């Protein structure tokens, strides 16, 4: 029996590879003779660089850049070199991520994506002719303005001065000058990987949906939504395209807007991009079962998250899917259309710190119990 194990990470506790290994360890206790194929996955958010660089044998790079609020951070990205081309793998979370600041520091009025732009510059300096950027986990709500400024774009107020950083400053934007933009931007293939389809502004836009988790009060949300809409209006004077309602432009605080002024971007669902790069369709050939999972599964899993993405590929080939999550949230019923059964691993109500510390043991035990149940069911069927 061939079992493909293809999970995402369990955030703050286990990497995607560690999750896959736990599942294999649990299943192999019951099915020691199975062929297990482990494919750690990510959907464009945190962990995407680690997954791709490990599977594709790339090389990690490090760059000290501006953090999301103040000070510098040592950000990691990766470079893939196949002899024909160089591909840079970048996560916005590495330089401009929410996890880089404390909850008390969160303030999307002033947080910036500037450090991500500095990583992109290093990638260009390294000869990258293709850049893939994952947009999950950002702390900024600046429409990618910081990225654009780091690349040489000038965002000017009515007095002709460069705007300060942060989402709130965009309210004062009067003009965009791209004459000093790094010329190499025009020659780069640029893929934006994200796991949401939200538009830039409005009720489902970047500020209203994701702003609160970045520290935005209701008053801040209104200001930021207005500022992004204004940024898009000024940008349209150059591009002749209004992006307020464009699908995916609400990712990472509207970062695709700034990126679209520097590059000819292509937005792609993060999980589909990862599955295609890793040639998962080929791996699924001949598989009898797929096991996937992530830290928490709920109705958001349907919006392009890893378990849903791999489950659709498996379902198209008639392969049954089991999912194992650290915990189960609300409205998981919609997942049953693609995933046969879903299991949580937490044994009882526990403090978060205990849940995170026991994740490995809980996951391995749950996988073992699922495998044992499959074996019992098979034995009953054969009778």
UniProtKB/TrEMBL annotation:
Xref: InterPro entries: Glyc_kinase_flavodox-like_fold, Glycerate_kinase, Glycerate_kinase_RE-like, Glycerate_kinase_sf
Parts of the chain that traverse the membrane: none
Family matches, as Pfam families: Gly_kinase
Superkingdom in the source lineage: Bacteria
Enzyme class at the top of the EC tree: transferase
Keywords: Kinase, Transferase
Keyword Transferase: yes
EC nos: 2.7.1.31
Keyword Repeat appears in the UniProt entry: no
One GO biological process term: organic acid phosphorylation
GO molecular function terms noted in the UniProt entry: glycerate kinase activity
UniProt cross-references to NCBIfam families, sorted A to Z: glycerate kinase
Family: Belongs to the glycerate kinase type-1 family.
Name this polypeptide is given: Glycerate kinase
Organism: Psychromonas ingrahamii (strain DSM 17664 / CCUG 51855 / 37)
